[in-house]
Amino acid sequence: MRSVTFVDDNDITLLESGVAFFPALIAALDAARHEVLFETYIFAEDDTGDAVRDALARAAQRGVKVRVLVDWFGTGHRVTSRLGQVLTQAGAQYRVFNPLCKRGIARSHRKITVIDREVAFVGGINVNDDWLCDHADGHRLPAPRWDFTALLRGPIVAQIHHEAQGQWTRTGRLRLRKRLELFREMRKQPPPSCASPARAAFVVRDNLRNRTTIQRAYLQALGHARHSVLLATPYFAPGRKFRKALAHAAQRGVAVTLLIGVGEFAIQDAVAQSFYPKLLADGIRVVEYCKTQLHAKVAVVDDYWATVGSSNCDGLSLFVNQEANIVVDDPVFAASMRAHIERGIADGVEVCPQEFADIGWLRRAVNGCAYVGYKLVMRVCAIGYA
């Protein structure tokens, strides 16, 4: 298992939702000169998806080496086929992660773009319209989906490029000569170039050397928390170690607040709510985000540590799927992240311990059954979940 290694002198900008992310992404793609590595879980056939697809195609047509990797399950079989036809005709290289689940149930849930080894995007935003629900075709959300991506420049980009290149290599069926060429490309390092000194680490989760790297980053931050923890996640169902770390922080006097998405999947809501009695008893503040679909996977600890990425705080993200997060050790970035989460908390509804204690027996039974079922599934699918 790899440790979390920070590198200095990075320029990092937090982008909130697609209104900030997609214009920046398309502008960067249109400015690409040499290479684009692009990964996403969902690549939708809507106006947003078409705009990003066309930007990738334009880059390929002007001679940029464009490599696109999408997840088969997240994007869908038919969409992956049609998208591949358009991009390959434009001259891009295109691959699909784990088609037909031939390599088990693990998905590539990562959202990564690296351009010319100079600029990178890492976060939780899929390629789809902010106003359209990503699990119900045509359903319009009451407000744009709430999510984040980090725009990065500096030495950290070399690490992100190395990992994205490695994922591309592992996904394909390549002859030895081609693999050697790709590994030679991976050894090239870009010159550092940035304007601010933010420290950052790029952490991924896979089923080889990085099985618990993202969870470890969270546990280390929670273990060192002294004043406050703000954590936002669409789905809350972590293992026992994660829940204990939250409880221990609260018991030390740290103000711990969880902002949890609700209203997307009834069964997921029931699983999350099965943890509420213990969380509330431990002194943890729980807020349900109801304004729109919460898709952000972000956290800030005290006044310096923050993370943004693709990993939910649940068993699938922490123990099964392939994920990618940026961890930032910088007071300016942490302050920005804190302000965003606090606005999200203001848009939510706090769970009152007394009111939750008065819920009926039927709802308690449903929540309990949902937890037991989820735990059994995770025990089968994920080594380490408890």
UniProtKB/TrEMBL annotation:
<feature type="active site">
    <location>
        <position position="109"/>
    </location>
</feature>
<keyword id="KW-0444">Lipid biosynthesis</keyword>
<dbReference type="Pfam" id="PF13091">
    <property type="entry name" value="PLDc_2"/>
</dbReference>
<keyword id="KW-0472">Membrane</keyword>
<feature type="domain" description="PLD phosphodiesterase">
    <location>
        <begin position="290"/>
        <end position="317"/>
    </location>
</feature>
<dbReference type="InterPro" id="IPR025202">
    <property type="entry name" value="PLD-like_dom"/>
</dbReference>
<comment type="function">
    <text>Catalyzes the phosphatidyl group transfer from one phosphatidylglycerol molecule to another to form cardiolipin (CL) (diphosphatidylglycerol) and glycerol.</text>
</comment>
<dbReference type="GO" id="GO:0005886">
    <property type="term" value="C:plasma membrane"/>
</dbReference>
<comment type="similarity">
    <text>Belongs to the phospholipase D family. Cardiolipin synthase subfamily. ClsB sub-subfamily.</text>
</comment>
<feature type="active site">
    <location>
        <position position="302"/>
    </location>
</feature>
<keyword id="KW-1003">Cell membrane</keyword>
<feature type="active site">
    <location>
        <position position="111"/>
    </location>
</feature>
<keyword id="KW-1208">Phospholipid metabolism</keyword>
<feature type="active site">
    <location>
        <position position="297"/>
    </location>
</feature>
<feature type="domain" description="PLD phosphodiesterase">
    <location>
        <begin position="104"/>
        <end position="131"/>
    </location>
</feature>
<dbReference type="InterPro" id="IPR030872">
    <property type="entry name" value="Cardiolipin_synth_ClsB"/>
</dbReference>
<protein>
    <recommendedName>
        <fullName>Cardiolipin synthase B</fullName>
        <ecNumber>2.7.8.-</ecNumber>
    </recommendedName>
</protein>
<dbReference type="GO" id="GO:0008808">
    <property type="term" value="F:cardiolipin synthase activity"/>
</dbReference>
<keyword id="KW-0443">Lipid metabolism</keyword>
<dbReference type="GO" id="GO:0032049">
    <property type="term" value="P:cardiolipin biosynthetic process"/>
</dbReference>
<dbReference type="InterPro" id="IPR001736">
    <property type="entry name" value="PLipase_D/transphosphatidylase"/>
</dbReference>
<feature type="active site">
    <location>
        <position position="295"/>
    </location>
</feature>
<feature type="active site">
    <location>
        <position position="116"/>
    </location>
</feature>
<keyword id="KW-0594">Phospholipid biosynthesis</keyword>
<keyword id="KW-0808">Transferase</keyword>
